[in-house]
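Kindly review both lines to help learners:
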Amino acid sequence: MNGDLMAKYKVTIDKVTCIGCGLCASICPDVFELGEDVKARIVEAHRTFNDDVKAEGVVKEALSNCVKDAESSCPTTSITVKEE
């Protein structure tokens, strides 16, 4: 597991379906924020990709419950979390 024995989780946001409600950022502000386009994105510390269509990032296991809570709370199911 990448040598650090900690699971990592890939977080993806579908910015096409995101309505910018900010629920993810309120649930898990260490990972999510609203960008200038008023759509959710991954904070810079965890971000691996961001454009008009999607945002991606990788977080360590310590944040897994936080991102999973945001995923299950998203009203448009725009957030996907997968263990890497």
Notes: The chain has one domain: 8-83. The mean pLDDT is 94. The CA atoms of residues 9 and 59 lie 5 Å apart.
